User: Which sequence fits this backbone?
């Protein structure tokens, strides 16, 4: 087995390219998808990794995160006229490409406050 050939096939710009992992390789699980498989450029991947790598280790920082990141989408509304609902605006936060990472950061801050600091976090729910 040629180690150099094997590793060079697997190296790619990890922070800029994401491989579609829905493709299942049936014959050889060690085989990489060929160049015709779906690859997409993800320009937000470095920012996603940075948000995921933030460690909450300060009580004040955790409080600021919990206060600044809302628990529910603030854009969701019911438009009423004369007591009747005309239409409903759905939550648009999930259109944010960094939504999962920001919500995860808020959750980590709440867990830090509850587990490490022993504070009551019900005011942030």
Assistant:
């Amino acid at each position: 087995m040629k180690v150099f050939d094997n590793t060079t096939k697997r190296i790619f710009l990890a922070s800029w390219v994401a491989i579609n992992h829905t493709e299942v390789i049936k014959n050889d699980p060690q085989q990489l998808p060929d160049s015709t498989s779906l690859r997409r450029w993800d320009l937000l991947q470095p920012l996603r990794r940075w948000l995921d790598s933030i460690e909450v280790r300060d009580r004040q920082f955790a409080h600021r995160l919990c206060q600044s990141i809302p628990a529910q989408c603030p854009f969701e509304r019911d438009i009423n006229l004369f007591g009747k609902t005309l239409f409903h605006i759905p939550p648009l936060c999930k259109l944010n490409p960094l939504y999962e990472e920001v919500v995860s950061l808020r959750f980590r801050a709440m867990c830090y406050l509850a587990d490490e600091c022993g504070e009551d976090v019900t005011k942030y729910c």
Q: What stands out?
A: Confidence is low (pLDDT under 50) at residues 1-25.
